[in-house]
Amino acid sequence: MAFGSIDFQLDTGIDGEAEELLYARSRPILASRVTGILPPLDGVTAALDDPDRLAADVDRARRLGFGGKLCIHPKQIEAVNRGFVLSETEISWARRVLEAAKAPGPVWFEGEMVDRPVIERERGYWREPLARIGRHRPRSCKSWAGSR
Q1: Residue 54: pLDDT band by 50, 70, 90 thresholds?
Q2: CA distances from 67 to 16, 83, 102 (A)
Q3: What is the pTM (predicted TM-score) of this model?
């Protein structure tokens, strides 16, 4: 499943790509979780020569729960894939959380309460097939160039 942000904007007359599309972007993410399918892919970033914009769009997509992002040009693939790979900091934190979580019930860990939802999120990183192979989040990037 993918969210075609540009098509959606055309169909609805929405002008803007941030909070203007938040509700619409959230719907396929929620639907994928409720139905147990892989997270959807976010739509393309049309600004081909703006790496900061692409990085911000990738970061937003990841934080919202998208499993990857569509690419409109091959030069976007590396940045999108990099944005959906777990960082060494995230991997280290997840390992430490899971070690601390061996204690029963919620635990106080590095200034935060860590309970079941946090523990399950960290375990999920290791359960995903791609997380075990190359430490990637569920899916990263699909490129139209690869389908030609």
Answers
A1: very high
A2: 22, 11, 28
A3: 0.72
